[in-house]
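Two quick folds needed for the group meeting slides. Do the first one here.
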Amino acid sequence: MKRIIFVIFGILTAIYGYSQSAATVNIVRTDPILIADFREAVTRIEQSGRIHLTESQRREVLEGLINQIVLSQAADRDRLVTRATEDNLIRQYVRNLFEMQRGRQPSEDEYRVFVLSYNLDSPKNREQMLREIKSNEFLRRNIQMPSEDDITDMYNRSRGELRRAQTFEISIIVFPYGSDSETRQRSRTSGDSIVREINNSASKFEEIFTRSTLTDLGYYPGKGFIARNQPVRTPAEQALLDAVVRLNRGQVSRLIEGPEGFYIVKVDEIYPEKEVLSLEDPRQLGQQGTVRDFIIQYIVNLRQQALLGEERRKATITYFEDNINRIQW
């Protein structure tokens, strides 16, 4: 009798679980994507970019979650990651994340603090990181890096598209604000005051820019490059781009609401469009990576998409449209 109750309880648990799911994926087991996890992923993207995703963009987020589970389960099927190697792989993955952010490997104390920030004692967080590790490991083992002939062939076929748009080298002063209207208004008021102090003077801008590097004044300086054809994701990014391309060398902008707050921008240099780029030319000014690097990554991405398509066709993917449509965004 106890066994019958246990089996029935298991069935009810599965039914309840799927009633809370946006989708399930099965290659070696059935993994659900819970509505709560789907919402969390969308919210994280919206908050980090200060944007509101459209319905089609939210679908892309869901597909991304599905893709990660597909690749993770494919790694399990092929036994690429074992219980014995999980801890070492997590350790190396965390150390690599630290190096990507700081440009060097962490000390042991820094590593421990970094691990705490990811809360890997939480089974959910640990499982999420393992999925990322398994997905990367599956791709690494199955994707062949492009040969020199592959690179040359792709370069010759796409040479007409490999041009660098007119690019602006800029200095910026950023007045950040939080999610509430009060801090936004404070930042606007502070920015307007500095705009009046600068009064379109490049030398005065440089004076205030330098001052903000030395002490915390509630605003901070930055430098960078913006290409005329730079992709934009939000109205704030578009507003910043529109303001920059209207400026001449040495000119200072009005106060602009940008991706991270309010901005004052000065154009330091303008580089003309370059129509013919060699394999060793920088792909974009101010960014690491040559045209060769760009082509290698492009070919790798094509191969990853082909491999992902193969694995998705092997998987059983179920969408719970009623659950998805009931989500209150």
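Then this one, please, same format:
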Amino acid sequence: MAQPPLKLNTHASVIKQCYSLIPYGFVAGGYANYCTAKWAHNQTPNDIDFFFKTKGEYEEMEGLLLASNLPERFRTDNGIKFTPPILDPQHPFYGLPPINLISKVRGSIEGCVRGFDLSVSQVSIGRDMKIGCTEEYRKTLSTFHITLNNNPTNYGLNTFHRISKYYLRGYFTPVEEIEKLLAWIRGIGEEELGKMIKERSGMEISFD
């Protein structure tokens, strides 16, 4: 039986406002899930992730936001977080959530969505405000069960964090899916895992 088409909820007005101010990029992942879920979440996403098809778009958008005097909260190898002012009602970004510019170029919206590690994240809202998602995402919305991407190269240490985050929002990850992540960890080896932990937290880990 075909599932009914997804619809945007009232939270999507925030994305529409962002698009009026941000001429490049598209929204996908957590905030897009927030805007297409039929039920009220227990937690509102902390920020909005903007992805880009080309490096040029990313760099152009970085320059525009810096020129708009939007406060830069921090930057990493993964991108830049901007925090709209909360005390300046005249600023065009006033009242919006923090905005993340993701530096990893995705090539296309479809490629971006299919590359996400969790099914619950595999959704986008285009600049035309149309929804794009995988079949796994539709199943997750109807069952509340999260599945992991079958390509382990899309996993990372953040996958654990995202699973716990969505658990607080009412989603459940079956044991067999957690096993995929554990198998990935066993497969990458202790040395590589130690490097990943150090890059993320600065902590030196010994497995001796």
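Slide caption for protein two: The beta strands are 26-28, 48-51, 72-76, 79-82, 99-102, 123-125, 131-133.
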